């Protein structure tokens, strides 16, 4: 929806609008405006003749703001004291610098970035009308055409809704460029209400106003996404979001804004819409000088065709980047790209050039992500990602596929378990269900666009990336994100260290000749400069550093006495190095402490050591080293750190501790930390990962995740009395004296701990190799616990929710299975479901049997005891004694 400037002007001035000469309706952009017969009575020019007195207004005439309309605007501004000027194309740099406001219905003009840098507001024509109606200059932000203020053409009023919701909606609308009206008027575009029974809703219907009556949910969804979505599902009296079923298909409305902007590398020259017959239609290329970069890698015939079209439009083609207004290149690298970007020239790719040819209308290359050159290197963190798409169609799907590739990830047509992300337009599809069951990241396209615009992987935990409005296909709003010039400059053409625009020429690649003058030329030039300025030459004697005390130079003396031929920039560079060295000396104590921590077993501890840690290097706050003795003090600290490290004994065991009562309970964290440091001083490293442990301490045989997982690695198992006694006697004792013996538990679980350890050594974590085990979602103990047990024993464990088909193992897996023991062959060709006899779990059993039959595998629905008994005894067991049947539902013993 777009504001009708003529309609807004009439209403702002307080009189009824005139009729359009062509369609006998409200006047609008593109049709002639008919001045009303009755002049405004609320405000005459002589009442506020100086309203725009200090305003120099540039009016940019485009297709959205025709010349006739621009002339009428200029007349109004001039009538109230302003200085208007009309530009058929973008204002020049000088024109932009002289004006105070730019009036345009779009940001797609060349000097927009220059205006933003100069803090010159760009406003829509409604700013003029609102200023006249209020008799003061209106806030430019509420009339900005910037699409990032996605509610910029919304004027909202509220009906009978709670005050808290009303304040939130008003604040959100105003923050995103919209306006609030306390009363119902013809200017209002949206009335927020819950029913059609309010006074404002009745007034809207009675007077047939154009305002849409929407639920507050629309504003809520828009603000959550940061995009303006379609209002139709939220419009009263019969909003779709309240009557549609969750499983009803969500259809998109199409995304016409992506036409010509869905790929960075178009394959063919488009149908050209540039007038070559000499008519009055102005070409977008008129008067421009364009450079086609060599990195486009296009054939000579296509290159000739492009140049022909450009020249027919009134432009010239050049090979000099300094002469060009627009530069067309493929990648964000190279001398041409960096030079043009640093000189604030328009840089776009071939897709952008083709779009200009097709529509003969200027657009900023930064306003479409794939209209700007791409990078050869991926976004940090995107390399290796495998991303699939769901529910996006047409241009939106093509656009996202190309954007994924441009970001450095791999876009897959189908969704597999090896995928890392699923980008979906709404949350209801088979792919979404599969991705959630497989633990993949499910996000909307905003995550991808924000990551690409900020050139940094955004956290998927951000709420706006996981939000899907109930009846909206987000493919309709794809492609609205713009690139940020500050981010591009920081990552691709930073001018840091370049004192002026002229030094950009120093950034040439190997294929360009060097622009640096030779050393002799530099010396002669500096000598001539010295003679002109009267600076005495050096007498040829070299001063020793000790002959003069080092002082901080005053602001008026940028060049030292003994450096007549040095330029101020070189002096500044040397001072920067000296400052960096001094700063490095300040950091020396922290560096020494870090080096000590880095060499510690286990690496640098996250967050650093506590002040109470016994082995922490302590600094004396009362005694600070002097500048002269700083280097000596640093050496002493490093030596002290080395001596402290040598004083600690080598690690003789990695101990995993589970069920240690002295550390259990709230308030024992400090004791646990102290005990672990004490054990480390005895040569015992306490670990949490079962893969790293050589010993395990437990009070008895337990069925904890730690205990069961550690058994697969065959550690030496001791009683927790070993830990207590070592701490008490302050020495490392023999673990053989504290072996864990628990005959009661061995009898209860029907296995031998000693035999299980021996079998674990022989199994080498391959006990369940080839087994495919599924688990219901809310199993007692948690899916993650059972998955870890299966994983450490070489099996494969997945979540089963009943909505997906099972997958057949690959032929390679089957060939590996054939090499396994014959005793386990039957089990490896079955599929297992860990479940309980609860009714909510039993509802999944028929589906499990069905999908197991589809892949010709025998379904086995078993209790979790089957897995635990195998993991603890380290031997395979038949599932028959553990299988669940329908007659057990509700009768299983806990």
TrEMBL record:
A Pfam family:
BRCT
For this record, an example GO cellular component is: Cul8-RING ubiquitin ligase complex
Q: Which GO terms describe its biological process?
A: DNA double-strand break attachment to nuclear envelope; double-strand break repair
Region of interest (Disordered), ranges: 245-269, 505-578, 604-646
Residue ranges of every copy of the BRCT domain listed in the record: 47-145, 145-236, 382-454, 645-740
**Residue spans of biased composition, Basic and acidic residues class:** 520-531, 544-566, 610-627
Q: Where is the signal peptide?
A: none
Q: Which InterPro entries match?
A: BRCT_dom, BRCT_dom_sf, CellCycle_DNARepair_Reg
Its name, as the record gives it, is BRCT domain-containing protein
- Native species: Penicillium frequentans
* Lineage, opening ranks: Eukaryota, Fungi, Dikarya, Ascomycota, Pezizomycotina
């Amino acid at each position: 929806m777009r504001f009708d400037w003529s309609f807004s002007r009439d209403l702002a001035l307080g009189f009824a609008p005139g009729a359009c000469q062509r369609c006998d309706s409200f006047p609008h952009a593109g049709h002639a405006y008919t001045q009303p017969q009755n002049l405004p009575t609320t405000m005459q020019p002589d009442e506020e003749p100086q309203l725009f007195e200090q305003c120099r207004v540039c009016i940019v005439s485009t297709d959205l703001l025709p010349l006739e309309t621009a002339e009428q605007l200029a007349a109004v501004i001039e009538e109230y004291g302003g200085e208007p000027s009309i530009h058929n194309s973008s204002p020049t740099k000088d024109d932009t610098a002289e004006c105070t406001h730019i009036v345009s219905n779009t940001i797609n003009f060349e000097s927009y970035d220059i205006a933003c840098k100069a803090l010159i507001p760009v406003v829509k024509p409604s700013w003029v009308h609102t200023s006249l109606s209020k008799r003061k200059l209106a806030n430019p932000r509420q009339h900005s055409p910037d699409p990032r203020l996605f509610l910029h053409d919304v004027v909202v009023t509220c009906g009978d809704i709670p005050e808290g919701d009303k304040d939130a909606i008003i604040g959100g609308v105003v923050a995103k460029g919209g306006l609030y009206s306390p009363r119902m008027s013809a200017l209002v575009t949206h009335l927020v209400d819950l029913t059609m029974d309010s006074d404002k809703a009745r007034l809207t219907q009675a007077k047939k106003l154009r305002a849409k009556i929407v639920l507050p949910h629309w504003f809520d969804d828009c603000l959550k996404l940061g995009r303006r979505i379609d209002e139709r599902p939220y419009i009263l009296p019969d909003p779709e979001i309240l009557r549609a079923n969750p499983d009803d298909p969500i259809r998109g409305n199409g995304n016409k804004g992506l036409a010509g902007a869905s790929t960075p590398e178009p394959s063919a020259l488009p149908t050209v819409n540039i007038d070559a017959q000499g008519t009055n239609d102005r070409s977008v290329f008129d008067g421009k000088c364009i450079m086609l970069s060599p990195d486009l890698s296009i054939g000579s015939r296509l290159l000739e065709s492009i140049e022909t079209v450009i020249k027919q439009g009134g432009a010239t083609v050049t090979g000099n980047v300094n002469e060009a207004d627009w530069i067309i290149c493929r990648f964000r690298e190279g001398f041409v790209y960096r030079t043009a970007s640093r000189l604030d020239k328009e840089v776009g790719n071939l897709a952008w050039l083709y779009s200009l040819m097709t529509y003969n209308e200027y657009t900023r290359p930064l306003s479409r992500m794939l209209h700007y050159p791409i990078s050869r290197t991926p976004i940090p963190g995107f390399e290796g990602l495998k991303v699939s798409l769901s529910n996006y169609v047409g241009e939106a799907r093509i656009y996202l596929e190309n954007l994924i590739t441009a970001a450095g990830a791999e876009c897959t047509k189908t969704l597999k378990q090896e995928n890392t992300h699923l980008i979906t337009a709404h949350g209801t599809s088979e792919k979404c269900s599969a991705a959630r069951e497989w633990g993949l990241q499910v996000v909307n396209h905003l995550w991808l666009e924000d990551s690409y615009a900020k050139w940094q992987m955004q956290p998927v935990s951000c709420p706006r990336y996981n939000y899907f409005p109930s009846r909206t296909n987000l493919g309709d709003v794809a492609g609205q994100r713009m690139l940020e010039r500050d981010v591009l400059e920081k990552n691709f053409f930073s001018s840091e260290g370049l004192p002026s625009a002229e030094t950009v020429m120093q950034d040439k690649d190997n294929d360009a000749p060097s622009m640096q003058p030779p050393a002799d030329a530099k010396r002669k030039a500096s000598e001539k400069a010295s003679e002109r300025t009267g600076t005495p030459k050096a007498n040829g004697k070299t001063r020793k550093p000790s002959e003069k005390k080092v002082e901080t130079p005053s602001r008026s003396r940028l060049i030292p006495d003994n450096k007549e031929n040095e330029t101020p920039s070189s002096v500044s560079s040397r001072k920067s190095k000296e400052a960096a060295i001094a700063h490095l000396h300040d950091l020396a104590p922290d560096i020494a402490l870090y080096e000590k921590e880095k060499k510690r077993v286990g690496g640098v501890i996250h967050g650093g050591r506590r002040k109470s840690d016994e082995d922490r290097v302590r600094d004396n706050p009362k005694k600070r080293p002097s500048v002269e003795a700083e280097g000596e003090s640093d050496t002493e600290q490093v030596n002290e750190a080395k001596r402290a490290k040598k004083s600690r004994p080598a690690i003789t065991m990695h101990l995993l501790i589970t069920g240690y009562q002295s550390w259990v309970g709230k308030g024992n964290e400090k004791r646990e930390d102290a005990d672990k440091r004490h054990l480390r001083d005895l040569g015992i490293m306490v670990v949490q990962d079962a893969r790293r442990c050589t010993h395990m301490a437990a009070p008895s045989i337990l069925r904890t995740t730690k205990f069961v997982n550690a058994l697969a690695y065959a550690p030496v198992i001791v009683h927790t009395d070993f830990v207590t006694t070592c701490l008490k006697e302050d020495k490392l004792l023999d673990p053989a004296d504290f072996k864990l013996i628990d005959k009661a538990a061995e009898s209860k679980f029907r296995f031998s701990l000693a035999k299980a350890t021996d079998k674990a050594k022989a199994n080498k974590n391959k006990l369940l190799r080839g087994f495919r085990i599924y688990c219901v979602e809310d199993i007692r103990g948690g899916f993650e616990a059972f998955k870890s047990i299966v994983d450490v024993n070489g099996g494969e464990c997945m979540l089963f929710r009943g909505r997906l088909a099972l997958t057949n193992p690959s032929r390679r897996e089957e060939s590996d299975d054939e090499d396994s023991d014959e005793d386990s062959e039957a089990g490896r060709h079955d599929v297992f479901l860990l479940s309980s006899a609860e009714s909510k779990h039993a509802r999944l059993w028929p589906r499990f049997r069905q999908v197991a039959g589809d892949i010709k595998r025998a379904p086995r629905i078993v209790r979790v005891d089957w897995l635990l008994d195998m993991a603890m005894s380290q031997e395979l067991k038949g599932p028959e004694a553990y299988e669940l049947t329908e007659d057990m539902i509700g009768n299983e013993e806990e």
